[in-house]
Design brief:
Helix content is about 60%, strand content about 10%. It is α/β, with parallel strands linked by helices and about 700 residues long. The protein has three domains: about 400 residues, Na+/H+ antiporter like fold; about 110 residues, HUPs (Rossmann fold); about 130 residues, Rossmann fold. The chain is elongated and about 105 Å long.
């Protein structure tokens, strides 16, 4: 048996790993979580199964479902739904009716064709039950995608309301269908009425408990003021709500939705608990969906047969056609008509729960072996492919946050491109600024390493800009292992430095060249010492793993007397907007020559951002901003400069967030190596590895 704590650790770590992999192929993270569960479960390596962990982790699923359901309730705000309430009601009923009729009819025909030996009543009962079981969706998956994509708009608003109402309607229709099935089995005339009463009882009881929980949370929040107290009290009440509904045989999902619905629609509209729970939800999402994947068994696909395939296809068609018909009937916006049906495909928890209720029904127990493989196979496919279709719905409707869409766009294509072709290419626009004129009496050189042909033109441009500032000349240094490598590269010395020569000439300068033989770091140091070197420019490799030359950078930076600028190029190189993050104003003095050089070359907007401790006061920030202002007025008066101080909980995240608004980052790197670097880390290296902008990491000779 696997220990519960170890099981949780495996679930969380594997879920996050597969979510990251899924994002590289432009897939939703939900799909990655479920795939992780499949790998861990009986369909994969079998590390987490009923035999190894039993049902010890299932309770965490119920906790996650309650919190997710509470979050769904936040999206059903009557004030916002006023204009779309007619759309929601019409679409909800239409998609349920069309899906039920289509699934029931198609599975009845296929079941009768492939199993004609059974009585017609048996085929009808099977078809009706499958029609009812096809109605629930996957509110947890949809809510997670809405949060992940930061989706907003008419489609998202209507979708969340339809999902919330749809599962309540699905439970009611299932209860009625169960009663009809009992009648067809000959259980008595009173069963239909009893089934209807039972359905309304489950729905009503769940809503009552959820409503009371929502009101109690609202009263409690008014008496609490700290974030910790609100989170603790709110979580306690929600978990109590979930346990109580389970104990009474009601639906925790509906109760959680009702609690969130009540809280968001109160006159006070207190959303503090929703916001506080946002930080608690990510691990719950990973746990919930990865554990759901563990419980999916791919062997069900083969057992479902033709009826299972028909069920899956008919459900997709029914959800899409029913949603479109309802949207057209209620005159909803075009994006809702086109794409709502795609977002309704995922199916999970509620459907599985209803299946196991069926398995415990004494009158219909004979149908369970036929229905369970069909529905579970449909859930497997819907959970794998449904989020992908839903993602397309959000993207096609233009409701994905621009920042998320820009970050996500092209990941799958670029990953495949790198895997089968080459790593990346530097996009370098032609030099369109005025030509730079060299000094009549050059004072030294700015050296750049020319080891990588993919980056050499970009490095040549940076080096020429710096050389112009320092009244120096650019020099390309190529280090070869030995003289035999010269023949392998090119016998003609005139063509050996052709790319960088062309770039430098276009900018108005002439290029000096130098060849060294031996170990890269050692020979670069020798080249610097052999010339009056004003600065050394080195380039990180292109691609997602730029730190391959960090040992060379560290060794060279700690051994040469001049500044070292380590450049990482990402995408199209531009310097129209430059971000300069720093910890102390004195760092700006070391960065000033680089800022002046880049500023003179392209006249950019320069943003100075000092990162302060998270607990600093507003007065502290204002004092620091005055200090930055004084430095900028003294040193960058001729440039367009912005400045601000931020209270950063994470320095790296603060930089990455601000970097989205800029083309280039210039920051100071600290010369550290060995044990000191291992324990203290490097902010500059972290930015180089994680940022999607080009970065200049400047190693000053004043360290």
């Amino acid at each position: 048996m696997v220990d519960v704590t170890l099981g949780l650790a495996i679930l969380l770590a594997t879920g996050m790993l597969f979510a990251h992999i899924a994002k590289q192929f432009s897939l939703p993270s939900v799909t990655g979580f479920i795939l992780a569960g499949l790998v861990l479960g009986p369909s994969g390596f079998g590390w987490l199964t009923e035999q190894t962990v039993g049902h010890k982790l299932d309770h965490f699923t119920q906790i996650a479902l309650m919190l997710i359901a509470f979050g769904i309730g936040e999206h059903v705000e009557l004030r916002k739904l006023g204009a779309i309430s007619k759309h929601v009601l019409t679409i909800c009923c239409s998609q349920a009716l069309v899906t039920f009729l289509l699934v029931s009819t198609s599975t009845l025909v296929v079941s009768w064709l492939f199993a004609a030996e059974h009585a017609m009543s048996s085929h009808i009962i099977l078809a009706l039950l499958l029609g009812a079981l096809s109605l629930p969706s996957a509110p947890a998956a949809i809510l997670h995608m809405v949060r992940e994509f930061e989706a907003k708009g008419p489609l998202t608003s209507i979708l969340m309301a339809v999902i919330a109402m749809g599962d309540a309607l699905a439970i009611m229709i299932y209860g009625i269908t169960l009663s009809i099935a009992h009648q067809l089995q000959g259980s008595g005339a009173g069963s239909l009425f009893a089934g209807i009463i039972g359905s309304f009882s489950e729905i009503g009881g769940s809503i009552i408990i959820g409503t009371c929980t929502g009101l109690l949370i609202d009263v409690t929040l008014h008496k609490l003021h700290t974030k910790g107290e609100m989170l603790t009290a709110g979580l306690a009440l929600l978990l109590l709500c979930g346990e109580l509904t389970q104990l009474m045989g009601f639906s925790p999902l509906l109760a959680g939705m009702a609690a969130g619905f009540i809280l968001i629609n109160r006159e006070e509209r207190d959303v503090r608990l929703f916001r506080n729970l946002n930080g608690f939800e990510p691990p719950m999402y990973v746990l919930f969906f990865t554990l759901a994947g563990v419980h999916l068994d791919l062997s069900m696909l083969s057992q479902a047969g033709w009826v299972g395939l028909t069920y899956f296809i008919a459900r997709i068609i029914g959800k899409y056609a029913g949603s479109r018909l309802g949207a057209m009937s209620s005159h909803a916006e075009p994006v809702v008509r086109k794409y709502l049906g795609l977002a309704m495909i995922p199916q999970a928890g509620v459907a599985i729960g209803l299946v196991f209720i069926l398995a415990g029904d004494a009158l219909l127990v004979d149908y369970a072996p036929r229905i369970i493989p069909i529905v579970l196979a449909g859930v497997v496919l819907a959970e794998l492919f449904g989020p992908i279709l839903a993602r397309q719905a959000f993207i096609k409707s233009n409701e994905v946050s621009p920042d998320v869409q820009q970050k996500d766009s092209g990941k799958g294509q670029s990953l495949l491109h790198r895997a089968f072709f080459h790593s990346e290419e530097l996009s370098l626009a032609p030099w369109t600024n005025d030509k730079l004129y060299p000094s009549g009496a050059p004072q030294g050189v700015v050296i750049f390493g020319a080891a990588n042909y993919a980056t050499v033109r970009g490095l040549a441009r940076v080096a020429t800009i710096l050389a112009h500032h320092f009244y120096a000349l650019p020099m390309s240094v190529r280090v070869l292992e030995n003289k035999l490598d010269e023949e392998k590269i090119d016998l003609a010395a005139s063509s050996r430095f052709l790319p960088e020569t062309d770039e430098v000439n276009n900018m108005g300068y002439s290029l000096l060249t130098w060849v060294e033989y031996g170990v890269a770091a050692t020979r670069l140091i020798a080249a610097v010492n052999a010339h009056h070197t004003k600065a050394l420019v080195l380039g990180y490799p292109l691609g997602r793993t730029p730190m391959g030359i960090q040992k060379i950078v560290d060794k060279v930076a700690s051994s040469v007397p001049c500044p070292v600028v380590a450049v990482r190029f990402v995408g199209r190189f531009s310097s129209n907007s430059i971000l300069v993050p720093f910890l102390h104003v004195k760092e700006l003095d070391d960065l000033l020559p680089i800022l002046e050089a880049m500023g003179a070359a392209s006249q950019p907007v320069i943003t100075l951002m000092q990162m302060m401790p998270a607990d600093c006061t507003r007065q502290d920030l204002q004092m620091i901003e005055r200090e930055i202002s004084e430095w900028a007025e003294l040193n960058l008066l001729e440039f367009d400069t912005n400045y601000h101080a931020v209270a950063a909980e994470s320095r790296l995240e603060a930089i990455l967030k601000e970097a989205k608004k800029h083309d280039l980052i210039i920051l100071k790197a600290v010369r550290m190596h060995g044990v000191n670097r291992f324990f203290r880390g490097s902010l500059a290296n972290a930015v180089v590895k994680n940022c999607s902008n080009s970065v200049f990491a400047v190693y000053s000779n004043h360290d």
